[in-house]
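Reading a protein record of the kind used here takes only a little practice. Think of the row as the fold of the chain written in a discrete alphabet. With that in mind, consider the following protein and its fold in token form:
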Amino acid sequence: MKCRVKWLDHMTFVGESGSGHAVVMDGAPEHGGRNRGVRPMEMLLLGLGGCTAFDVVSILKKSRQAIVGCEVEIDSDRAEEIPRVFTRIHAHFIITGNSLDPAKVEKAVNLSAEKYCSASAMLNKTAKITYDFEIVDVV
């Protein structure tokens, strides 16, 4: 896997993925940025959310659950000292579907957290990561 990050101006960068997609990243105004894109550390959390949501949706589909929606709300804390690594991350899943089995949803979340999500495995080296979920039934 390869990617490229190119500085544009001020504290604005464009990241280009090996798969041909691009994203703008920018620093906060107090650090010379102009608020034109996602902060780099936010990108890490978005990557975690995407990685774990991908797992959960895939696992629930394979277990024949009638899932129609999945959102992950992520909250975090960072260290006060440099490097300001994540020290706490909490991922809250909102799983929407028809008559979803709570045990299967819990199993999917746990499998992602403990086995499949590469982003969780890496971030878990510095942060205490917790997960929970709620099920929204759409009858």
Remarks:
- The chain has three helices and six strands.
- The chain has a mean pLDDT of 97.
- The beta strands are 3-9, 12-17, 22-26, 66-78, 86-98, 128-137.
- The chain has two domains: 1-38, 40-137.
